[in-house]
Specification:
Layout: H1 3-13, H2 15-28, E1 34-41, E2 46-52, H3 63-84, E3 91-96, H4 103-118, E4 122-127, E5 136-139, E6 145-152, E7 159-160, E8 168-172, E9 190-191, H5 203-221, E10 232-236, H6 243-266, E11 275-279, E12 288-291, H7 302-309, E13 319-324, E14 331-332, E15 335-344, E16 347-356, E17 370-374, H8 377-380, H9 383-390, H10 396-399, H11 405-431
Helix pairs in contact: 1-11, 3-4, 5-11
Length: 433
């Protein structure tokens, strides 16, 4: 039986116990307001490989899910408000990234604002540069009009300079190089917290929490925990110009590869293990390199060193993760692909399939030249529709499956990743009290 089908079956078989466990975990740390999760299904593992706390890409969600997600966001805001005692949330300001030249990001912003507006809230886009004085009129990749307005915070509240005062601030900006200090101490709540951008957040911490959750789930449903876990090792104080530092990375990589070789032999997996070397912070697929032998680290060229040494916003990489490489078996239109799932809290709201014309099943697909295919949640739950609408390679037995295998399997892994992010947020809040 294929792993995704086994996972879906096991979840259904132990559904009451799974629901009770998820409820208890959510009481420990609630999932973030929204997030997106990049998944890999190798046939012997189903795992997240990235989690974005301030997701872009809402323009890549299918129109049906864009409409239905408005209701999910409405419920999420109501639930969070109830938990925290916030009252009368009617006005919302979204604070975006500052790169207005990226018209595809602006496309995302247009759809995100539309979704929140459709959820029943009066919504504006805020503009945070200190010297901004006028509203900025900009166009997205498909020529859609957006207006971003400067705001002030000198009264202890965030207020747009046109007088619009929100009840809630939503961030769509990871503030990789640090957040504006004027966001501290605002009277309005901010979702997600501005204090957990990539200036603070570490991927290694996310995967510690995710691996613990996936191991517990596997034990509840009677599966091999290894098939849902992803080995991730942190290396601090890296310097890609130092031979001694490269030697430390290579030694750690050798240890991980040896453990993987043992696991592959035990499970009769007939392929060579590989690793992703990633910056411990940042997104957009930056600072990622694939190796098959530990010694490859010692001979990386200048271009690769520069790529690994520098992250988003030109920030120097000081910490990396060595992560088990998980190939993808997802094929769309004969191209290697991976699913990306979007959530509001712990609820699935949409997603897309990321493909690449020049990359293979072991490569980082989140790179220049990637192509997006919309992935409706309704199709994720309908195997025949998935095969027909997206040209996804699916076995005949799976195509005739009446139960939503992919929705249950991939949806569960995405939820665990969202809960892991919630635990990151809780850890940070506890450590900074």
């Amino acid at each position: 039986m294929k792993l995704n089908k086994e996972l879906a079956y096991k979840i259904r078989e132990h559904l009451p116990a799974v629901r009770e466990w998820l409820k208890k975990e959510a009481e420990i740390a609630e999932a973030p307001f929204y997030s997106s999760v990049d998944l890999r299904d190798s046939g012997y593992k189903i795992v997240p490989v990235d989690n974005n706390l301030y997701p872009a890409g809402f323009n890549n969600i299918c129109p049906t899910d864009q409409r239905t997600s408005a209701h999910v966001f409405q419920k999420e805001i109501e639930e969070i408000s109830k938990i925290h005692g916030w009252k009368n949330i009617k006005k919302i300001v979204i604070i975006p990234e500052s790169h207005t030249t990226n018209t595809f990001y602006l496309e995302n912003l247009y759809y995100l604002q539309n979704i929140i507006t459709a959820a029943g809230f009066e919504t504006e886009l805020g503009w945070y540069p200190e010297d901004a004085t006028e509203a900025l009129h900009i166009k997205s990749a498909s020529d859609k009009d957006l207006v971003v307005k400067p705001f002030k915070t000198d009264t202890g509240s965030l207020v747009l300079k046109n007088g619009f005062k929100p009840d809630l601030v939503i961030l769509n900006n990871d503030f990789s190089s640090g957040y504006p200090k004027r966001l501290d101490g605002l009277s309005q709540p901010i979702l997600p917290s501005h204090r957990l951008g990539w200036h603070t957040r570490r991927k290694s911490e996310h995967f510690v929490h995710y691996n613990r959750l996936s191991q517990e789930l596997a034990e509840i449903i009677g599966m091999d925990p290894w098939s849902l876990m992803i080995e991730t090792v942190e290396v601090k104080n890296v310097d890609f110009e130092s031979e001694a530092s490269l030697k430390i990375i290579a030694d750690k990589a050798h240890e991980v590869l040896e453990r993987l070789k043992t696991s592959y032999t035990e499970r009769k997996i007939r392929r060579k293990p590989f690793l992703f070397i990633k910056s411990n912070t940042g997104t957009y697929g930056m600072g990622i390199h694939v190796i098959h032998e530990a010694k490859e680290i010692l001979t990386i060229n200048r271009r690769t060193k520069n790529k690994l040494a520098m992250g988003k916003s030109g920030l120097k990489t000081e910490s990396i993760i060595i992560q088990e490489g998980v190939p993808t078996t997802t094929i769309v239109d004969k191209l290697t692909a991976e699913p990306v799932i979007y959530l509001a809290g712990s609820e699935l709201i949409g997603g897309f399939l990321r493909t690449h014309t020049e990359k293979g099943d072991e490569d980082n697909l989140n790179s220049k030249g990637m192509v997006f295919r919309k992935l409706c949640m309704t199709d994720l739950g309908d195997m025949q529709s998935l095969s027909r609408s997206y040209s996804v390679d699916i076995d005949e037995d799976d195509a005739n499956e009446e139960e939503p295998i992919f929705e249950q399997a991939y949806g569960m892994i995405a939820r665990l990743s969202a809960l892991a992010t919630g635990l990151e947020i809780k850890d940070h809040e506890v450590n900074n009290k």
